[in-house]
Amino acid sequence: MLVGVPRETFPGERRVALVPAVIPNLKKAGLEVVIEAGAGVEAGYPDAEYTAKGGTIAAERVEVFRDADIILQVLCYGSNDVTGKADLPLLRKGQALIGFLRPLGAVVTVQTIAETGVTSFSVELMPRTTRAQSMDALSSMGTICGYKAVLLAADTLPRIFPMLTTAAGTITPARVLIMGAGVAGLQAIATARRLGAVVSAYDLRPAVKEQVQSLGGRFVELAIEAKDAQDAGGYAKAQDESFYQKQRELLGQVVAQHDVVITAAVIPGKKSPVLVTKEMVAAMAPGSVIVDLAAERGGNCELTRTGEKVVEHGVSIIGSINLASAVPYHASQMYAKNLTNFLLNMVKDGKLTLNMEDEIVRSTLVTEGAEIVNPRIREFFSLPAMVTQS
Ligand SMILES: NC(=O)c1ccc[n+]([C@@H]2O[C@H](COP(=O)([O-])OP(=O)(O)OC[C@H]3O[C@@H](n4cnc5c(N)ncnc54)[C@H](O)[C@@H]3O)[C@@H](O)[C@H]2O)c1
């Protein structure tokens, strides 16, 4: 079978779905690889490195889609809502498509993908289990985003992060607050600590307290408790508005005491909760920085403008989207490894075999035979359950 990797087309996207180093593993499993010319260049992987590892280069994008049995992308249509639609006529029945599909975004989008007949898999739906850990692209990208968010904050803050005792006096360390201690938040804690900041973190899931502390962070405890803070998959559950209101009241003082706030609090498929109001921003010291990693889904800060950096009340608010693309070499390396592990789990004797008994396959499969076949997506969009599933 042939695996095809088109060049990413989302504006500013620099990642690539496969890196040369994984090609030998795919070949060992009986898969060949074709890459669209120049697909890896922006991530630091020139065409010659792909051919050196046994891949072939296709001059035209249409050739990749025409010849490949399996298409691997970073941002497929769905998550690529700017240019992704152009690929739809290139997809065909029975072909497999794997990548970020934003499956809980808009039902019409998922339906349009289904109508192409493609067998699509969304990496966002990977179960958070030990066996699926090596295939978990959300964790990989979260790791990169958490790291990069701290660097952006450090670059913007008019202070330095570490404490210094110098002949010119003592410099106090920067105080950094991380809100939402999932994968990205935990990596942000670790990165800010490495730079010498004093780090606090808050999450509505009490289960993360120990993880925060093990990274050298102080866990902020608020006098409210979330109801059923997390679901069976380990994700936070949405709370009612009275909870969020109380949360904001209690967080006000905490935010004002910090030079940097990095927010990474999201609920799968939902608009991000507002944790930092405009009043809280106004109470921060001038020169402070907020990096809002939830910007893509509305943001955790009321004054965030998606995709922009703004200054309000003297506070810089960074609402960058697609931060993982800003570290394309390692983001692509991690993503390629995740996709390779995912693919190899489904390839038997050089053929793609969908074992619906396998939770990994069952959870990630989105469309097949022109239908949305994923029960979680159907339930989310209130589509009737399917009677039979192929
Ligand atoms: N294979 C595995 O076992 C595996 C792999 C990756 C992640 N996980 C776990 O899955 C969970 C989700 O990780 P993620 O990084 O994808 O999370 P995420 O990106 O969905 O959410 C980020 C964080 O925001 C927090 N949050 C949401 N609303 C909030 C609010 N109002 N106030 C404060 N915090 C709020 C969540 O609790 C979460 O910790 C974590 O427990 C993580 O450790 C497990």
> How many strands?
19
Bound molecules: nicotinamide-adenine-dinucleotide
User: Alpha-carbon distance between the termini?
Assistant: 22 Å
**Proportion of β residues?**
15-25%
Q: Helix coverage percent of residues?
A: 25-40%
The Rg value, from CA coordinates, equals 22 Å
Q: Total helix count?
A: 12
Q: Which structural class should the secondary elements be placed in?
A: alpha/beta
Q: Please give the largest β-sheet.
A: 8 strands, mixed
Mass-distribution shape: globular
Low-confidence stretches: none
User: What is the mean pLDDT?
Assistant: 95
Question: How are the strands of the largest sheet arranged?
Answer: 3-2-1-4-5-6-18-19
Give structural attributes:
binds nicotinamide-adenine-dinucleotide; 390 residues; 12 helices; eight-stranded mixed sheet; seven-stranded mixed sheet; alpha/beta; single chain
Write the layout of secondary structure elements.
Elements: E1 2-5, H1 23-28, E2 32-36, H2 47-52, E3 56-58, H3 61-67, E4 70-75, E5 96-100, H4 107-115, E6 119-122, H5 137-156, E7 164-166, E8 169-171, E9 175-179, H6 183-194, E10 198-202, H7 209-214, E11 218-219, H8 241-256, E12 260-263, H9 278-282, E13 289-292, E14 309-312, E15 315-318, H10 328-344, E16 347-348, E17 351-352, H11 359-364, E18 365-368, E19 371-372, H12 375-380
Parallel strand pairs: 1-2, 1-4, 2-3, 4-5, 5-6, 9-10, 9-12, 10-11, 12-13, 13-15
Antiparallel strand pairs: 6-18, 7-8, 14-15, 16-17, 18-19
Helix pairs in contact: 5-6, 5-10
The protein binds nicotinamide-adenine-dinucleotide.
Residues 128-130, 132-133, 136, 138-139, 142, 179-185, 202-205, 208, 234-236, 264-268, 273, 275 line the site of nicotinamide-adenine-dinucleotide.
